[in-house]
Amino acid sequence: MGEIKGKKASGKKEHHLWKSRDSAQSGQKALTLVRIVCKLPNEKEAVYGALDKWTAWEIEFPLIAVAKALKILRKRGQWVRVIQVAKWMLSKGQGATMGTYDTLLLAFDMDQRVDEAESLWNMVIHAHMRSVSKRLFSRMISLYDHHNMPDKIVEVFADMEELRVKPDEDTVRRVARAFRELGEEEKRKLVIKRYGLKWKYIHFNGERVRVRTEAWEDNESAN
């Protein structure tokens, strides 16, 4: 029995070491990818060519390493490089997840590429209609809000309602503001009544105070 227990413990240890080593390798690969793309000219052919060369000797597509590289580039605010790497990955038929789409929409937003964001959004909403995440809806509404496009906010919100996706508090605020800008006061009030929280915390005179939603609504009307 003692030998069996010892073998089990040894097996667990080896498995743990293998996972740690694999994680470290993907981290190093991610850093290498980041270094490569950041030295390249801003040309699609140059970037795609270098990334193809980076994966030339890989048996399987290094999806984890690419995902980590995108996180690094996102943290550094390298939005053009985020877009290039994400598009390259998708062109290889890899990483087509809600997380990738979210990162790409954020990068399009930050790089002022609204048209490309809309093209991606239309593809996602038609191909994955029933599985589009709340986060992705919120991201698109946030993008339209940043670029002062209230009519587009309302369109995305209509899809949310049709698919029964409940908006978060920030999205409710953006949608309510969009309806106000469009002169749709009754719809603005309806959105707040239907989705707004009963209580909201605000900071007043340096303290955190709980107020009713109606008070927040009145404040929104005054702004």
From TrEMBL:
Gene3D superfamilies for the chain: Tetratricopeptide repeat domain (1.25.40.10)
InterPro entries: EMB1417-like, TPR-like_helical_dom_sf
Protein name: Pentatricopeptide repeat-containing protein
PANTHER family named in the record: OS01G0757700 PROTEIN (PTHR46782), OS07G0545900 PROTEIN (PTHR46782:SF2)
Annotated region (Disordered), positions in chain: 1-23
Compositional bias per record (Basic residues), positions renumbered to this chain: 7-16
